[in-house]
Amino acid sequence: MNPPESRKEKAQKIAANPSAYKICEGCDSIVTLVSVTCPNCHSFRFDSSSERVVEQALMLGSREQNSVTSTDLF
Ligand SMILES: [Zn+2]
Q1: Residues with CB under 5 A from ligand 1 (ion)
Q2: How far does residue 73's CA lie from ligand 1's centre (Å)?
Q3: Measured between alpha carbons, how far is 46 from 24 in angstroms, rounded to an integer?
Q4: Ligand 1 centre and the CA of 13: distance in Å?
Q5: 53 φ, ψ to 5°?
Q6: CB neighbour list of residue 49: distance below 8 Å, 6 or more residues apart
Q7: For the chain, what are the domain ranges?
Q8: Predicted local distance difference test score (pLDDT) of residue 16
Q9: pLDDT averaged over the chain?
């Protein structure tokens, strides 16, 4: 019965734990570190630097819906 997490809350979670995520080099999606290919563009090249993950999470969190799907975060 929890309300759905807002984009901002997801972004803050990611930013608080950047080592669990990486950035797709193809489309800049944030994906979990265990992902082998990007769910959006099927790229297999990622940047796992924490700085970049935090930066991207905050950027996505500050943006409003529709430009990316909710699944790209997980
Ligand atoms: Zn991608």
Answers
A1: 24, 26-27, 29, 38, 40-41, 43
A2: 11
A3: 5
A4: 20
A5: -60, -45
A6: none
A7: 7-73
A8: 97
A9: 87
